[in-house]
Each structure stands twice: as C-alpha cells, then as structure tokens.
Amino acid sequence: MNIADMPKIELHCHLDGSVRPETIIDIAKWDGIRILSLDIEEMKEELIAPLDCRSLDEYLEKFSIPNAVMQTKENLKRITFELFEDAANEQVKYMEVRFAPLLHTQQGLTVEEIIASVIEGMQEAEDQFDIKGNIILSCMRTMAPERAFEVVEKGKAFLGKGVVAIDLCASEEEGFCAQFIEPISLAREYGYRVTIHAGETGIGKNVLEAVEWLGAERIGHGVYIKDCEEAYRVVKDKRIVLEICPTSNVQTKAVTRFEDHPLYDFHRDGIEITINTDNRTVSDTTMAKEFNIVWNQFDMSDEDYREIYMNSVEASFAMDEIKEELRKYLVD
C-alpha cells in the first residue's frame, strides 16, 4: 500500500499551526510586519517545534509568529486557501480546520469578519481542488468563559454555512471543563457539534468530564485515558472518537516516543481512532508522514487503514451526502 496515494480525511488540524513559512515571510514583507528573520531556513527553525520539546506549553510558543500575520481578512483567506491546497495535494478528500477567532482581532477585525474570511478561503479551495471541508471554532481555555460565549454567539450565523462545531483548546489544566459547561451547552443548543481537546497532558479525567459534562462527541488527543479506567470505559462504550496526532503527541510529551503511543492498543481494543497532523508547520508533518509513522511503528494492515479511514468518515461533522461520497473512495 502506497500511503501517499491513498485517500485521507483529517479531523484535527489547526489553521495557525499550518501556515506556510514562505507565506509568513511574504506577508511580513508586504504588510511591514517585523519578524525575526526573512530567511526561509531560519524561519522554519522558529516555526517548527523539535521532537524533544519539554511540554505542551513549549510547543504552543511556536504559534506567536503565525498569529502576527493572521490579522487581516486577506491574509486569513489566503492562509486558509493554501492549507486546503496543501491538504488536497496530500490526497486529503475532506478536512475540518479549527481556529480561535479571538486570536485574530488585533487590527480591529470583528469575529464575524474573521470567520467569514476563513470560510471564503476554504470555499475557494473547494472550488479549485478535489477536497471538501468545514470549520471548527476554537475557544481558548486561557480566556474567561465569557469569551467562549462570544464565539458561540457570533459564530451561530455561520452554522451550516461552513462552521460545524465548537472546540476548547490551549494549555490543559485539571478540571477545566467545569468552567465551560454553560457556553458549550449553549453551543449544543444552537446546533454546534462538539469536539474538545482533553487528555493530552496527563489528565485522563478531563476526557471523562469533557464527555459527561460538555457532551463531547470527539476528543482531541485523549492519550491519557490509558491512565484513567473510567474515562477509557466511557470513550469505548460511547464510541467517542479520538483525534490522534502522533508527531504532535511526541513533541508535547503526551508520549515520550512514537513506539510508546497507545494508539495501537486503543485501535485493537475497539476504541475508534483517527490519524491527524494537528499542525502541519509546527510539527513539520503531513498526513502521509503521520500514517507512515504509525505503519512503521505498529503492525498495521490494509484493513486497519480502511477501518481508520471509515472511522474518520463517520466521525466527521460533514453532511450525509458528503460522507456518502467519501465512503466511495475506499471500497471492498
């Protein structure tokens, strides 16, 4: 099986972590934004997190430069278009891209303008390439819950028009779910689907609370259910899908080495997993790289690939007609 040629689906990809280094330099020159270097190799060193990162917080430091060039409608549209173009070139047939609108208001854009610009970039890519997509709005756990209400309310008008879900991301602390019960409940009432970053930094109980308190249908990462029996059982029994990001998980020290990742054990035990990049630029990766890592480290078969692909189809927040088209890429 040539993984590079296989159809792929990505459900966990951050816009600001997947900006082309060349684009950052180009925008910085055009907009007069001061960055550390205009040399492409030096820029890559600033953007790409090493495998020996000490923690999630160190990994997240790599996002400051991309955010600096993501403060206008034109730049947001361009960066989104280019991400979908890159994904299409990897044979990604469907992708859900997430981003935090409140990080892009520094030059006066409204949340509505920000969301609309990202959707426009996605739709232009859909028109030009063999790829479909949707947008997930992320709320920052480092901000007050009131700001999450703002995202939920202002994103409501875009539901069914490119936006499909709500997310919580950023640094993970124990018990964070309790602070966001009300805004996420309101989001569900409005029709948002729910995926939550949890269990990435050693706190398996956060996954349990994300499912039981926030109604999470999918979990971003979820690695540490391995150390929380109740979370593991709930994820398995309720068929909560895990958005696994192997390279990122090593960088953030969710696992120490690729071979230590529990994804193989999860998959064999019937937990539904998907494979994703998390951040193409910060993790210096592609979907093909992520699948090759998994296939090289674990005894995966063609049937495993099909199962993970179909997990991704069914777990996606796409409309039924898109799901039906995606199923056709892999037939018995």
Automatic annotation (TrEMBL):
Binds 1 zinc ion per subunit. Residues 7-328 form the Adenosine deaminase domain. It is an enzyme of class 3 (hydrolase). Zn(2+) binds at residues 12, 14, 197, 278. Its EC number is 3.5.4.4. The record marks 221 as: Important for catalytic activity. It comes from the Bacteria. It catalyses: 2'-deoxyadenosine + H2O + H(+) = 2'-deoxyinosine + NH4(+); adenosine + H2O + H(+) = inosine + NH4(+). The keyword Acyltransferase does not apply. GO terms for cellular component: cytosol. GO terms for biological process: adenosine catabolic process; hypoxanthine salvage; inosine biosynthetic process; nucleotide metabolic process; purine ribonucleoside monophosphate biosynthetic process. Keywords: Hydrolase, Metal-binding, Nucleotide metabolism, Zinc. One of its GO terms (molecular function) is adenosine deaminase activity. Its cofactor is Zn(2+). It holds the Pfam family A_deaminase. The active site is at residue 200. Substrate binds at residues 14, 16. Belongs to the metallo-dependent hydrolases superfamily. Adenosine and AMP deaminases family. Adenosine deaminase subfamily. Catalyzes the hydrolytic deamination of adenosine and 2-deoxyadenosine. This is Adenosine deaminase. It comes from Rossellomorea aquimaris. The lineage of its organism: Bacteria, Bacillati, Bacillota, Bacilli, Bacillales. The gene is add.
